[in-house]
Hints:
The protein is of the alpha/beta class.
Amino acid sequence: MSHLVRRWLENDPQARAIALDLDPPDSVVEAFFEPVAERLAFHRGDVGGTGLWRDLEGADAITHMVHGAAVTSIERLTRLPDGGRDMTGAVGALETNIIGTAHALAWAGRQKELVRMITVSSGSVYAGDGPEPLPEDGYVAPEGLYPLTKYMGELLTDEAARSFGLPACSVRLSGVYGPLDRETGTRAVKSVPFTLLRRALDGEEVRVAGLEAVGDYIHAGDVADALLALLACPAPRHRVYNIALGETWSLGELLRLVEAQVPGTRWRETPAGEADLALDPALTGGRWGAYDIARLSADTGWHPRPLADAFVDYGAWLRRHPY
């Protein structure tokens, strides 16, 4: 979302943006937005409550909106100290992901100049098997609290468009990586590319398991460009679009890209229990495989960069920002 906001402002010197977040911007975020800071306003608050949206009622001339606020690591909130599980700890996250989306849609519906709204969903809504590349229609079978909340967001968005005339659609992302990828209060997952590149750049040995395991990895900057293309699309023909690289790369292939950038990278294959990065090579289809991006490309003309080029870009950024 940070990449989207920055590119929105860079592409149009007259544009302004409002960023909503539960946490205030830290020094990394402030530095990222420094070139466009004068035209960016931050509003801190919980999208699952009414206060934030009430405070925004004075905002004018809102033409485009992208709703990407979510708690991604819901499952960890259900774990108890004794190893058991209880859903109580996840209720707040469910409110953010589901009620927050309902608030966002309702607020968007009151914006008289709104041209387009996009709800950000996830490839986690897909089943674990299916054709490759995986199309948007069919093969949806969310398992787990987070995937269920993302699919609920899609359904709410579709209903708002169908019943209330909201110019809205949803997007499903594959495995996103890139600058600003780090743990936050609502995100407890580091991407595979971050883990590999960061350890290699720090001169640490990378212990891996599952060299044949695959993923569809997309740079956050390419996701931002896809969202911008969809925001600018006069009349999207579909209610949901995949945003992905559209092809799979194995862990072993990613390691070769890392070695090309960081000569002397040290890594070794170990049992999963001893690995810094352990992937399951049995997970190759459905949500774990390649996503079909033909629909978005046909409607907007967008195409992602080759993975090797995007990896070089990300490695250069990590060298400049050793967090």
